[in-house]
Amino acid sequence: LLVFAGCGGGGPSPEVQLGGIYLTDVLDGLMLRAGRTLSTINSIETAEAAAPELKIINDDFYDLRYHAVKLSEMGQREMAVYARKHYNQLRSMVDSVKGSPALDARIGGEMATMLGHLEALMAPPYGEPE
Question: What pLDDT score does 130 carry?
Answer without folding.
Answer: 84
